[in-house]
Amino acid sequence: MKKLIVLTLIIVLITGCGKDKETNENKVYSFTYNNMNFVLGQEFDKSKYGKEVSYSEVPSCAGLGVDKTYTYEHYEVTTTPSDDKDIIYNIYLTDDVVKTNEGIKIGDSLEDLTNTYGNNYEKRDNAYTYTLDKTHLEFIVEGDIVSGITYYIDVE
């Protein structure tokens, strides 16, 4: 009987006392600045985010209209057309004033990056890419220092 009780306690401890562990399934990367939340894949409503510093357009790679880039003081947001809407396709952080929602900024160390996000990344050259569903958060690392941060989504 004691063995059964001990075995039951071990199973409960291993499974987290019956609580569902949070998973990254169906989550996406997003960026928040000054209480404005930019969610990859969601419609971009320019009126919610204030006046941009600059604006540009290029033909969409998919040939479905134009990609639009809104440059703000510390970041850029690029949208792409989808179902008659402009969706957030890419967010590029341009300086160390802004941080990811998890607290990493340009100028942080590779150690800070991996302590925060873990080692479940894809590394190509000096790019460390973390993926949630169809969204990606990519860090460019030069000399063990984060020098660039980009959020992007797979567009179908």
Detailed description of the structure:
With 156 residues, the chain is mostly beta strands. It has a single domain (30-153), classed as Pathogenesis-related Protein p14a. It is 13% helix and 40% strand. It is built from two helices and ten strands; from the N terminus they run αββββββαββββ. The chain starts with a helix and ends with a strand. Mean pLDDT is 83; it is low at 1-25.
What's the CATH architecture name?
A: 3-Layer(aba) Sandwich
Q: What's the total helix number?
A: 2
- Tell me the number of strands: 10
CATH topology name, in short, is: Pathogenesis-related Protein p14a
Mean pLDDT, to the nearest integer, reads 83
For this structure, the quaternary state is: single chain
Query: Can you identify the CATH class?
Result: Alpha Beta
In whole angstroms, how far apart are the ends? 57 Å
Task: Domain count, please report it.
Answer: 1
Order of helices and strands: HEEEEEEHEEEE
How much of the sequence lies in strands comes to 35-45%
> Which stretches are low in confidence, meaning pLDDT under 50 for 5 or more residues running?
1-25
Key traits:
single chain, about 160 residues, mainly beta, Pathogenesis-related Protein p14a, 8-stranded antiparallel sheet, two-stranded antiparallel ribbon, 2 helices, 10 strands, about 15% helix, about 40% strand, disordered N terminus
Write the layout of secondary structure elements.
Layout: H1 2-14, E1 30-33, E2 36-39, E3 54-59, E4 66-71, E5 75-82, E6 85-93, H2 110-117, E7 122-124, E8 127-132, E9 135-142, E10 145-153
